[in-house]
Task: structure prediction
Amino acid sequence: MKFQSFLIKYGEIALKGSNRHIFEDALLSKIKYALKHADGEFEVTKSVGRMYVEGLTDFDSDEVVGLLQKVFGITKICPVIRVPDDGFENLKGYVLDYVKNAHPELNFTFKVDCRRTRKNYPLDSQEMNALLGEVILDTYPNVRVDVHHPDVLLRVEVREHFINIYSQEIDGAYGMPVGTAGKAMLLLSGGIDSPVAGWMTAKRGVNIDAVYFHAPPYTSERAKQKVVDLAKIIARYTGKIHLHVINFTDIQMAIYEKCPHDELTVIMRRYMMKIAQKLAEDSGCQALVTGESIGQVASQTMPALCCTNAVCTMPVFRPLIAFDKQDIVDISLKIDTYETSILPYEDCCTIFVAKHPVTHPRLDVIEKSERKLDDVIEPLMAAAFESDEVIVCEQY
Ligand code: ATP
Ligand code: MG
Result:
C-alpha cells in the first residue's frame, strides 16, 4: 500500500510548557536534516501537537521510516492516508478502501477511534466510531469488533482541511531532539562502550563533539579510521560530530618512562581527561562523556574512577556506569556500532597496559607519581593540543 505521508508523534516535548516551541522547532529541523539523506522531496510541517512529513515526490517508505527512526524526540511514526473532507458518505468509502488495502487478509478484530480537530464536523466522535464500525462489519464478514484488545486500531482524524486514516504505529527513537540540552565532549575510543555512551547522552537532547587519542606509530591509521567510522554511525542520530584527533604518543611514552607501570592506565586516563576538558571548554561543551562502567576493567574500579575523576572540574557523564557488558552490547547492536567496534585494531590503552595494573589506586600516590613528569609535561601537553586534527563526521 502506498502512503503519501507520515504523522509524527512526540512524547516528552509536549510536557515542556512555554518552551515547547523550542523543542518542536528543534525536532522539525532534525527531521528535515534526516530526510536530506532520503531519495525524494518532502515537506515537514507542524500542526497542533504533532508533525507531518509529506512526500512531494515518490519515495521509498522503508528508507524514510529508517531515517525517521534515528531522530531523537519522535515516539511514533504513523504512515497515513490523507483523504479529502468531502462528506461522511465519501469518508465511509475511503475507510473501506483503506481497510482492504492496509489489511488485505480481512480477518482480524478491530476498533475505530475517531478524533476531530474540526469540532464543527456534523457528527461527533462516538457517532463516527459507531457508523464507521458498522459499515466495516457489513462489508467484510470475517472482521470482528474488539474494543479492548483489537488487532487493528483504526484511527480516523478529522483535521481542519483534510482527514487522516491510519492504523500502524512504528516505534521511533524516543528521547529529546538533539541540540535542546547543550553540548558534551565524548571520549570516543574504538571500543564497544564509548559509542553507546555517546548515543545515550545524545538521546537526551545533548549535542556531541568527540575526542580520540591516538598513538602513532603504535596505533595505526586503520584504528583511527575505525573511530571516524564510529563517529559517522553516531552522527546518523546526532547530526554532524566534530571529532578531535589528538596525538597522545609522547605523553604516553613519558608516562611509560617515568611512572610506575602498574599506575600507567590511571595516569594516562587522567591526562586524557585533562586534555578532553580543555577541548570541551574551548568548544562550548558543558560536560564530558565516557563509556566507563564500574568494575569492568582495572581502570574502572571505584578507586580508579575516583582518581580519574579528580582531574575534572567539569561534570563527567558516565551513562553506562551501572550497565552489564551484555546490556551495552545489546544497545551497540541496535544502533549499529557493534560490528565496527569489534574490528581488531589496537588501542593506545592496550599497547601500554601493565601486566598487573593497580586496582585500588590512591589519589595521593598517583599525584606523587605524576610529579615525575613535572619537567616534561608542559611542552608535551602543548604539543598534544597543537596536534589537534578536527574531522567533521556526518551521516553516511
Ligand atoms: P570502550 O569500549 O569505550 O573503549 P573500554 O571498556 O575499552 O571502553 P577503557 O579502555 O578502560 O574501557 O576506556 C574507558 C573510557 O575511556 C572509554 O569508554 C572512553 O570513553 C575513554 N577512552 C579510552 N581510550 C580512549 C581513547 N584512545 N580515546 C578517547 N577516549 C578513550
Ligand atoms: Mg577501550
